[in-house]
Specification:
two-stranded parallel ribbon, eight-stranded parallel barrel, 33% helix, globular, alpha/beta, 391 residues, single chain, disordered N terminus
Length: 391
């Protein structure tokens, strides 16, 4: 979640104003749902699916940096947690240009080697859908690019990425494709044209699943709550989504964890939406933000993760969000260590094989895969992506 809270507050105020609701008026859950979308039933409108699970430890890790030289940080983080079993490595592709989105082979190879060193490990890769990924592109241009993607103009880039991952050992990577699409930060945002966005997502998944040997899982990971558009309006379909994620930061100021659970398109809506579809949830990004050193948020978030059908979780670990690389949150750091120290992680590797690819929407056919690429002997790393987390 890289946008500032002021932007979110402004969009919420606009929504309330245009809906004829005075700013600051308390809204019931049913009323708030009626402002935006009927894709999630209001509370009490229909039987709610069971979502609670016995306490357990899902695979967990932390975002500690994007490039291959950050991989040793995972081991140091594990030592800080009393040799806990950090099973998840989380990194991002840069989105400065399409070459970034195709993946730097040497970096992909190093992360894939980390994944293959232990059977229970999981590699989670953030994949932008458009380039440049963060460039304040106007909505009209975003809509035009989404239309191009929906027609297949960018298929070759995702085909290249898929081939490289398979060839380099990352065939079972979890892909947070177009993360935080319901916000305003990224060029791959959904609001300018939700129909084209969904068609484009489907094309990308179909293209990447066409590569022999792949076992990718695709994680649909919006921001928590009602942002620029309800995330349900961006959902591309059960056949092209394997995990229903959510990025959850401790905001707004004065908010409580119960607020984050109950708000429209919040944590409760996420787990119910996923349960109705037989899919696990995830928390690719979470951490502190607007409420300072907040050990209660940490306690409640870890408990929430452990008592729901969570495929994995990764805390964003740098200031102001994290606990290890940030010295601003001593009480939260102590609580996180208390909760996670010595954790054995999940007992079994998570996740089924990827389902068959759905049919492509209209557009050029996907070419047959050529021989796998090899890593260059002296790669020149692209510009590193900006770190995740709200700004």
């Amino acid at each position: 979640m890289r946008f500032g809270r002021l932007a979110l507050a402004a969009s919420t105020l606009l929504l309330l104003t245009t809906a004829g609701v005075p700013a600051g008026t308390p809204l019931g859950q049913t009323e708030r749902h009626s402002l935006s979308s009927d894709a999630i039933a209001p509370r009490g409108a229909a039987p709610r699916p069971p979502v609670q699970r016995p306490a357990h430890e899902p695979p967990f890790g932390a975002f500690v940096g994007s490039w291959d030289n950050y991989i040793p940080q995972i081991g140091r983080y594990a030592q800080w947690l009393g040799d806990a079993n950090l099973q998840v490595g989380h990194t991002y592709l840069a989105g400065n240009g399409w070459a970034d989105i195709e993946g730097e082979p040497m970096v992909l190879a190093m992360w894939s080697q980390w994944r293959l060193a232990e059977p229970s490990r999981m590699l989670v890769l953030g994949v932008p859908m458009l380039a440049p990924s963060e460039a304040s592109v106007p909505d009209g241009e975003v809509a035009r690019l989404l239309g191009q993607g929906a027609r297949g103009d960018f298929d070759r880039h995702f085909l290249t990425l898929a081939r490289r991952l398979v060839a380099l050992g990352g065939a079972d990577t979890v892909l947070t494709l177009g993360w935080e699409m319901n916000g305003v930060t990224y060029t791959h945002r959904c609001k300018p044209d939700p129909a084209a966005w969904k068609t484009y997502w489907r094309r990308i998944v179909t293209v990447m699943r066409s590569v022999p040997g792949q076992r990718f899982r695709f994680d649909f990971a919006p921001n928590r709550g009602l942002d620029a558009i309800p995330w349900t309006k961006c959902y591309p379909g059960d056949d092209v989504v394997d995990i229903i994620g959510m990025d959850n930061y401790d905001q707004p100021a004065g908010g409580t964890f119960d607020d984050y659970v109950r708000e429209p398109y919040g944590l409760q809506d996420q787990v119910e939406f996923a349960a109705k579809r037989g899919k696990p949830v995830s928390y690719p990004e979470w951490g502190l933000f607007r409420n300072g050193d907040n050990p209660e948020f940490v306690q409640r978030m870890v408990e929430w993760i452990r008592t729901h059908d969570t495929a994995y979780q990764t805390v964003t670990d740098y200031c102001p969000h994290g606990f290890w690389q940030c010295d601003r949150n001593p009480r939260s750091s102590s609580r996180f260590r208390q909760l996670m120290t010595g954790s054995p992680g999940a007992p079994e590797p998570a996740g089924p094989a990827a389902p068959p690819a759905p049919g492509l929407p209209g557009g050029p056919a996907v070419p047959a895969p050529p021989a796998a690429p090899t890593a260059p002997t002296a790669p020149v790393p692209p510009t590193a992506p900006a770190p995740p987390g709200p700004r």
